[in-house]
Amino acid sequence: MKYSLFISLFAFTVGCEYPVNPPKADYNRVMSALKEAETAAQAQGGDPDLMEGEKLFKSTCTSCHGDDGKAMTAAAAAMNPKPKNLTSADWQTAKTDAEIAKVILEGGASVGLSATMPAWGAIIDETKVVKVVKYIRSLKEK
Ligand code: HEC
Question: What is the pTM of this model?
Fold first, then answer.
């Protein structure tokens, strides 16, 4: 008796939430929309995450690190220690993505480097930092 009450309550609840069968998602349409977005991004010259990472880097980091990450800027020349050449294969190999993300989010001082490298966590969140790291990785000298 208890169970049948439970079952009919359950059926009632489900019945109220879904008065009609919800329409099945049209995955073909979703997939073709994703494909279209990817093709559009490629037509513009590549990976949208990489493009956003580049935009963030060039708007936030260039004054010290240079557009190309080589730190050949006037500001860099005046610093001690100077920002390193981020394109260097040696530097790129020595650092993991997590280490690069940490120094960006929490600043140089958080990893024992110069506090001249500011913490960017207030304007670059976890999603954006992944894109910035991707851009930095794309700068690695061949
Ligand atoms: C005010 C100048 C300045 C700005 C702006 C700046 N940095 Fe730096 N950055 C530095 C300096 C100086 C260092 C070197 C610190 C050291 O070696 O002690 C550094 C170091 C780094 C490092 C290397 C850490 C390592 O492992 O050697 C990374 C990665 C980095 N910055 C990324 C960024 C990114 C990404 C941005 C933009 C979001 C940015 N920086 C903006 C000055 C700056």
Answer: 0.76
